[in-house]
Prior knowledge:
The chain has a single domain (3-180), classed as NADH Oxidase (3-Layer(aba) Sandwich). Helix content is 33%, strand content 15%. It is built from five helices and four strands. The two termini are 23 Å apart. The model has no long low-confidence stretch (mean pLDDT 96).
Amino acid sequence: MHPDLDFIYTRRSIRKFKPDAVPSELLEELLRAAMAAPSASNSQPWEFIIITRQQTIASLRRALPFGHYDATAAIAVLGSPLKARNPAGLLYWEQDCSAAVQNILLAANALGLGAVWIGCHPVKPEVWGVRRALKIPRTSTPLAVIMLGYPAEEKPARTRYDPLKVHWEAYGGGASTPAER
Ligand SMILES: Cc1cc2nc3c(=O)[nH]c(=O)nc-3n(C[C@H](O)[C@H](O)[C@H](O)COP(=O)(O)O)c2cc1C
């Protein structure tokens, strides 16, 4: 693992948080990172909701059976293809928004925060629950909710590199580099 890529390998899903609030400047910085993500034809088919009210986070917890964490903040990442800069957003909004989610996770890690990706779309009950909790109109779809806060757990850096999943040059081409063959 190359040390220059520590910001990737040290990113882990953090599900335990300290009670300290995350300053709003940091939350805004996370969205600067989110909106630095690539998107198809640069369509940027996304919108974001920053949530810091504990009451709203509690309603998100109720909407997300796999998101029962005591986070102090959350960010909902919405696909909003009708607000995209061009029609590519209609086709690729899931990928574009996923790139934005990953940027938020990496940025949170680099800024000393902990975060976990809670999936919504395409699971209908989760999408409905998050829509209701955050008053999201039908023109936008919540792809994910990121639960955030200062981490109260530590996890080791890691990759899950698996040579069996690597093919060189063509499918079935083997996991060794041409030089090793
Ligand atoms: C699309 C997606 C949905 C996820 N949904 C949840 C979730 O609902 N609850 C949760 O605790 N973690 C969720 N995760 C986090 C994964 O469980 C986690 O990334 C995985 O176990 C690998 O661990 P790591 O993030 O520490 O590397 C989700 C991750 C992705 C990419």
